[in-house]
Amino acid sequence: MLIDVSRAGVNFADVHIRQSNYLSEIQLPYVLGSEVVGRRRIDGQRVLAFTIRGGGYAECAVAPQGTTFEVPDGIDDGQALALAVQGNTAWHLLHTCARLQRKDSVVVFAAAGGVGTLAIQLARRAGAGRIIAVASTPAKRQLALGLGADVAVDSTGTDHLTERLIEANRGHKADIVLEMTGALSLNQSLKALAPFGRLVAFGYASGRAATLGTRDLIASSQAVMGFALPQIYPIRGMLAHSMKELWDAVLSGDVTPHIGGRYPLSKIQHAHMDLQERRTTGKLLLDPAS
């Protein structure tokens, strides 16, 4: 489908791809951007689209019909983009990977980011127990608390992170950890994970991936799983199901996407630098017309 783009989304994965240190190598030339909102050329319908192989940072983008969805009335372009890569990631982290049950305690790393702000709200909507937000600044921690987290933990310095997480969960180890920072925090998080707890890794923003020991996993009866959103694209109905859940969550008022910044396409370098320097919160939007 050919789409006239009104807004494109920016994700931390775009930074990794630009730096050539993501999950797979890319072939140059390459246009970044995995999600757009705009008008479908064939009929003028407003749609949200996953571009699959990049190409979103543009005035016009192409996306498969199977990953293009009509945007419901009542949801604006920015909200729709927040639900695309980051919203679906948050939903599948909680439900497909961690198999969240009511009253489960949930630790959310990068809680003020695009995935984190939505994961907090989705966990609350699903009936989670204690929700523990992990973020680096007082302002980010306050944002997470305002979105529904029960307590917020400082992510700076990992020496005593295990103790801080257990203390935040009232002296108990956590049922679920959503982790995207990397080696040091992941290993500390495992020590704060309960027996039969589930840790889901969906990134390594620090640039350092963790190494796990089989013996330790067996001894602790813990589950560790990775998640990358593109794995669900070819599985029939999977993306459509989570998109419906996300539309419903916003339209019901249970979830409010947090828009953290708007950039003209000519300032994309600024958007990437702001992401790398951890200066952003929520969803970042690009305006291809400026």
How do the helices and strands line up, and which of them pair or pack?
Blueprint: E1 2-10, H1 12-18, E2 35-40, E3 46-50, E4 60-62, E5 68-70, H2 77-97, E6 106-109, H3 114-125, E7 131-135, H4 138-146, E8 151-154, H5 161-168, E9 174-179, H6 183-191, E10 193-201, H7 214-220, E11 223-226, H8 238-251, E12 259-264, H9 268-276, E13 283-287
Parallel strand pairs: 6-7, 6-9, 7-8, 9-10, 10-11, 12-13
Antiparallel strand pairs: 1-2, 1-4, 1-13, 2-3, 3-5
Helix pairs in contact: 2-3, 2-8
Q: How does this model look, in words?
A:
It contains nine helices and 13 strands. Helix 2 packs across helix 3 and helix 2 (77-97) packs across helix 8. By secondary structure, it is α/β, with parallel strands linked by helices.
The largest sheet is: 7 strands, mixed
List low-confidence stretches. none
Q: Write down the overall geometry.
A: globular
Number of helices: 9
> Helix/strand/pairing class, anyone?
alpha/beta
* Count of distinct structural domains: 2
Can you tell me the CATH topology of the largest domain? Quinone Oxidoreductase, Chain A, domain 1
CATH homology-level superfamily of the largest domain = Medium-chain alcohol dehydrogenases, catalytic domain
CATH class label of the largest domain: Alpha Beta
The number of strands is 13
Determine the strand fraction and express it as a percent band. 15-25%
Q: Helicity level, as a percent range?
A: 25-40%
> What is the CATH architecture term of the largest domain?
Alpha-Beta Complex
Can you write the helix and strand succession as a string? EHEEEEHEHEHEHEHEHEHEHE
Distance between the termini: 23 Å
Tell me, rounded to a whole number, the average pLDDT. 94
Determine Rg (CA atoms, Å).
18 Å
